[in-house]
Amino acid sequence: MIKNYPAIFHNEANGRYWVEFPDFAGGTQGDNLEEARRNAKEFLSGVLETYYIEKMPLPDPSNLDTLCTCDGHVEFVEV
């Protein structure tokens, strides 16, 4: 089963990124965009596995129009 959720990739002044998943508590980071994308996929995979194991209903993905991206951009992460 393939799932897509939006993630906000916040760009820091030093070139690093921190990633926020508005539909789940928590996020991840990376030294560059490529690493942040890999870590985001790993994070989302772990969260979805926990939801599945605990038999918790998955939230609907956030509407992209409502997400603040002042210091970065939004991408869908697919697992």
Automatic annotation (TrEMBL):
**InterPro entries under this entry?**
HicB-like, TTHA1013/TTHA0281-like
Give all residue intervals belonging to the HicB-like antitoxin of toxin-antitoxin system domain.
5-70
| Pfam name, any one | HicB_lk_antitox
The name on file for this protein is: Type II toxin-antitoxin system HicB family antitoxin
Supply the source organism for this entry: Streptococcus ruminicola
